[in-house]
Amino acid sequence: MRFLLLALAALGTTAQAQDAFLDVEAGGTYERLTNGRDPWRSISLDAAKQFAPRQTLYGGVRETERFAFRDSELGLGYSQPLGAKWTAVLEGTYSSQHNVLAENSVFGQLAWAAPAGWVLSAGARHSEYTTSRVNLLAGIVERYWGAWRGGYAIYNGRPEGSGSATSHRVFLDHYYDGERSRIGAGAGWGREVENQGPPTGILTSDIRNLTIGGRHWLSGNWALAWDGWTQQQGDLYRRTGGRLGLRYRF
Q1: Model confidence pLDDT, tens digit, residues 135-152
Q2: 137 within 8 A of 124, measured Cβ to Cβ
Q3: Where do the DSSP E strands lie in the chain?
Q4: Tell me: the pLDDT tens digits for 57-80?
Q5: What rounded mean pLDDT belongs to the chain?
Q6: Tell me, what DSSP letter sits at residue 162?
Q7: Residue 223 and residue 105: Cα distance in Å, rounded?
Q8: What does DSSP say about strands 21-33 and 104-113: parallel, antiparallel, or unpaired?
Q9: Reduced to 3 states, what is the DSSP secondary structure of residue 27?
């Protein structure tokens, strides 16, 4: 889901979006799991070059540790305005180890800026894992008003040879400091597809999720990005953790 969120951010729909910039962010995550499972960890380096509003080249590299497996991943994406109201996003990822992460994935999204601050988006992702393939469909409805953004997202994942799993998410963000900084919260529920690595492979389970996060600009060039969450993964475990990132704008 990480690069899907980057794709949403790349749309640049806030009113005060700059014409051009380059952001580089280094970060890390830590999650504690219940039921005797080892913690999850990751480190990442991401960059986004905006050439004009809604025209952004972005990507990153990360290394994860999950279920006693280490995976690295490369990702690259691009958003392109198609006229005044439409924006297209295309991205891909690749993992050489792909024990838990997808070996490769391709994602495409189309967004329409409707009247009265509404934004409607639809996207699809195809992911290739070691033992299976997963297709994901996503639909997002957002509305911007004043210094606020709220919305609803629905995701439908279908592993190869298995039934589909649908999850939902609602979110609310507040922008401040000229819309450069943000604080928000979200909640998710439903059923989700997850790869636990060999020998278990891909499982589908009920999920419940609560997340808070934001981005605060410390100065004209430096910003702190942060997130905290807790997610119940059926009867398997609960994940509770957070992420910190330090961003610099050139």
Answers
A1: 999 999 999 999 999 999
A2: yes
A3: 21-33, 40-52, 55-66, 69-82, 86-94, 104-113, 118-128, 133-145, 148-159, 165-176, 181-195, 202-217, 222-233, 237-249
A4: 999 999 999 999 999 999 999 999
A5: 92
A6: S
A7: 30
A8: unpaired
A9: strand
